[in-house]
Amino acid sequence: MIFSLKECLRSIYLKPPIGCKMKSKFSIFFDIFYIVLFFLQFFGETNQRFFRNDAIGIGCFFVVVYAIWSRRKREFSFYSLSHLFLIILLSNFVFFKIAEYDPIQLFPEKLVIKLTMIIWNFIILFQHYRSNETEFNMFGPLLAILPCFASINFMLYPVVPIGFAIGLMIRNSDIKEVQFSKSFILFFLIVLLWIFRDWSDDFALVRILLFSEVVIILSLVNSLGREFRQKLIDHILIIFLINSVILVSKMYLDSEFKINSYREDLFLIPVSLLGSNSFLILGLLALSFYKSNWRIRVFYLMVLLVSCFFLLLSLSRISIISTGLLFLYIVWEQQKEKINLKFVAFAFVSLLLAFVFLLLSEKSLLNVETIGVRFSIWKLHMLSTIYNKPIFGFGFNSEKLIPFVENLKISTLDFALVEDYMSHFKTFPLAHNLYFQIFSSTGIFGFSVFLIWIFSFLKYSNKSIAAINLRKNLPKAILLIWLIHEILDFSSLEIANILILGLLALDVKNSEKSNVKDKESLQVSKTIMVFLGFYFFLFLFFSYRFSKIEQQIFKNHKNIHLSTFLEFTPTGIIPKGYNLDSNSSGLSKFEILMYGERYFFLQLALAHSTANEPIILQQCFDFISRKEICYAKLMNYIVNEEPLVHYSDPIKILLSISDPFGIYLRNFL
């Protein structure tokens, strides 16, 4: 029976579908606003216009064919199919954003990413056909953004598609059934504090927003049960395996690649991220192997082999040690009463082969010099925070600010080691330690909150610990080993790891979950709705801000270069539409405050060799807190202006005062 569109819309919004408890007027407003904003993101400036057209066309084609095919097999509501259409488009939007950067570049015309996108579309369609409408309303948005949470998929602003997925999840969830507490409100008050404190720094905002988005996702799926979370874990393993095949193929086709060579990154993927992510994938496998289906176990075995390969390939010592600790824990728990000699023999041979592989590699097992550099960086983070920003720290991009503080209280040897590190790796001194990084980012206040959360989590998990059940104890063991892992690394906020860590924490939390609903959560549900609504509209603003910057980068890619230290540097080619001689008032104060420092430095780079450049340079000293970059930009301007060359020496003195490590000064010596 064919219904008119008017009847379909009436059936959707006057009688909301299962799981959708929003009022009809708000639902209509939300859907229209969501769709308009989403397509504005999709049709912005890009370097992959043909891929974007293919992504939209393939998505529309698949949904239409699926809708026609499914009428003979199973009847779906109009709302269910329209929701599926948005999910497919969101998934293709993710792959479109991945294609804009694509560090692997296996085949021309982004063919591999297109094939992966098509495979993922089929997986989404299969899950829609297999699942009931209520389950897919929550699982579909997560499935669309899972490719974001993969180690080889680089995106400049992954929080944008993740935020759109959260919007769809909230749109289709019954918030009253979601178990929140007053601590959730406290958490978001702290998040808002960090957001407004780091308002001008895009990189810090991405870290904060990513962390808060994962917390919201976990809160929404908390009440959906263990089977739902296991399905999510299985699809994380699927995208990991697909990307691993792509990466292995790239290594095989690269004639210059040597498997035992020492490297800092693998096709622009940091090896520390590769190692830490492989360890967490092995942890998920250890949790999942309890399934009895032999086909699924074969799939798990394939993921196991690939993750072990990348773990050894990364040569990440702390990740390999962490995997060894996890393996020993599993053996100990399973063989407390009777040791299985075959199992132990297999373990011994595996460890021996891994040890031989490490010995044959170019990276030494124990490098005293590397450890010494890390100690020096830890001292820099700790002492700089204590003497300069003790209460609230430097923000979630602290490594970018610490080298330029006024009170550097480190020894001459530590100073030299840190300076050599930054000069050699061309990067800012990341702490490579979760605890020192948190301390320098959030100060005494934030670090105290972090410690309270850790101890509360450990105390809670000890109450629900199972004496014999390894399956229930394993998530806690993985997280405890991870806390050890993070002593020599800082990978907790990496997008490839943060969702996995959250799922493990949720597993511990629900290991002995009571069926009694928390009265406290019911009393504050309306307040939480206000917080979620406010956060969602804050996300909409940031998605607009991030997309505005990203689209200008693509639009002017011939005129600028991305730079680690200077944000953007001009290529010398004047952008079209710029008048070299016309004067203007530069950027408005509102523009600078709303769009942040990254946007400001982008406009400064685009104004190169125009009458606007000195005006924006003056604004740099008026509105931007990072004076060392302002002095470096001013020096670049003076060098290119012959009548001003005699001012270079005084500016060098000022630059040396604000740049003790000589990050910018060495370019003018």
From TrEMBL:
Record's bilayer topology term: Multi-pass membrane protein
Residues spanning the membrane: 26-44, 50-69, 76-99, 111-129, 141-166, 178-196, 203-221, 233-253, 265-287, 299-332, 339-360, 434-458, 479-506, 526-546
Keywords: Membrane, Transmembrane, Transmembrane helix
Chief place of localization: membrane
Domain O-antigen ligase-related: residue ranges: 303-451
Record's subcellular location: Membrane
Name this protein carries in UniProt: O-antigen ligase-related domain-containing protein
Organism: Leptospira montravelensis
Lineage: Bacteria, Pseudomonadati, Spirochaetota, Spirochaetia, Leptospirales
